[in-house]
Amino acid sequence: MVFFIFILVSTVIIPLHVHDYLASILSPIHLICLNNIPSSGASEVMSAFACGEKIHSQDMYDFFSRSGLFHLVVASKSHLIVISLMFTILADSLKNNSKKIFVKTLSIFFCFFYFCTCGPQAPITRALFYVLLNFLSGKLRLGWSRPLQIALSTILCLGFCPQWINSLSLLHSSACALSYLFAEKFFKNKATSAIAAYILTAPFLFGWANLHPLGLMLNFFLAPFLFILWFLLSISALFFHPFAEWSSKIILANIDWIKLLLDPVSPQSSQASLKPNTLWLLLTSLFIFLWLYDRLKNSRVLNTQESAKTVSAQTSQ
After folding, report:
1. Which of 29, 55, 207, 221 is buried most, with the most CB atoms less than 10 Å from its CB?
2. Can you give the pLDDT at residue 46?
3. Looking at residues 19-40, what average pLDDT do you find?
4. Which pLDDT score is estimated for 118?
5. Residue 79 near residue 267 (C-beta atoms within 8 A)
6. What pLDDT sits at residue 9?
7. Using CA atoms, how far apart are residues 82 and 103, in angstroms rounded to an integer?
8. Residue range 200-225, pLDDT digits in tens
9. Regarding predicted confidence, which is higher, 195 or 234?
10. Max CA separation in the chain (angstroms)
11. Average pLDDT of the segment spanning 283-305
12. Residues 26 and 231 sit within 8 Å (Cβ to Cβ)
């Protein structure tokens, strides 16, 4: 099955230039979103959250790199989770089952609409491929491990758009998924797991040269709160323009406060991260290690079960 998917990617998806066609279709929706973001001091950040637009200004780029919060402004699975969570809370508050089903269906529609608004970008496309592979693995009982699903979703992305081989955002997305998976497997304590995941993702997100304890604290304690707050403020500014100025002031106040914390302990500009080729090598090594670990662990479980059956059979005799 894995070989079949690879052949499908190589012989069908690449020649069809699916990414180019889809990007041309969704481009007007993305432009409408950008044009509806009111001009303000935080319009660049709000455009990143609401429309999936890239950060262009050097000042903002350095801020998110130095703080280790760059993953917040990259349209990814996290954004889809927040949208789903909002609709899940609404559905749980309803007593009527038909209304619950309607709200959950609406959640899927809004997730797809958000994808269309952002366009076929690498991280969110990889997330959708991963969700699809996870669904197929469970439905067809394929038994694909999570490292394999992450690797296949990355391969499908490269087939969908070969130019993404140079995409740092695709590297970031895949590396974050594998790093958090690695941390979950080897560190049972949540705090230790979070620290390990942060250190592992550092070379992919902002470079090991920018590692500092404050960045860890920001990601561990503030990042989830800031992500939800800035995402909701950006969406409110998009649909309700009277809230735009208020939303902008809150986001800029948060950024200024974080800058005050960063200035004494972090360089004024971010240090260059590793080259893409080196990062791909690190990513591939991490995938192979996790895949082999799962294979060995499963084989040990099977051997233990077979030994238990043999002992049970001998005892019964």
Report:
1. 55
2. 92
3. 85
4. 86
5. no
6. 54
7. 15
8. 776 666 555 556 666 667 777 788 88
9. 234
10. 81
11. 76
12. no
Tokens describing residue 189 = 């304590």
Alpha helices (runs of H) in the chain, residue ranges in sequence order: 2-8, 14-16, 18-35, 43-51, 58-67, 77-92, 97-118, 122-139, 146-160, 168-186, 190-205, 213-217, 223-239, 244-262, 276-316
Q: What is the pLDDT of residue 11?
A: 47
For the beta carbon of residue 217, count every other beta carbon within 10 angstroms.
13
Residue 220, SS3 per DSSP: helix
C-alpha 17/C-alpha 13 separation (Å) is 7
Among 268, 258, 260, 246, which residue's Cα sits nearest to residue 46?
A: 246
Single-letter amino acid code for the residue at 174? S
Q: Given pLDDT bands bounded at 50, 70 and 90, which one contains residue 249?
A: very high
Compute the distance between CA of residue 316 and CA of residue 163 in angstroms, rounded to an integer: 62
Cβ–Cβ under 8 Å, residues 123 and 75 = yes
CA–CA gap between residue 132 and residue 316 (Å, rounded): 46
Instruction: Tell me: pLDDT of 176 over 60.
Output: yes
**Structure-token pair, residue 310:** 């043999």
Give mean pLDDT, residues 147-154: 84
Total count of residues recorded for the chain: 317
Here the tokens at position 90 are 């609404």
DSSP characters over 263-288? TTTS-SSPPP---HHHHHHHHHHHHH
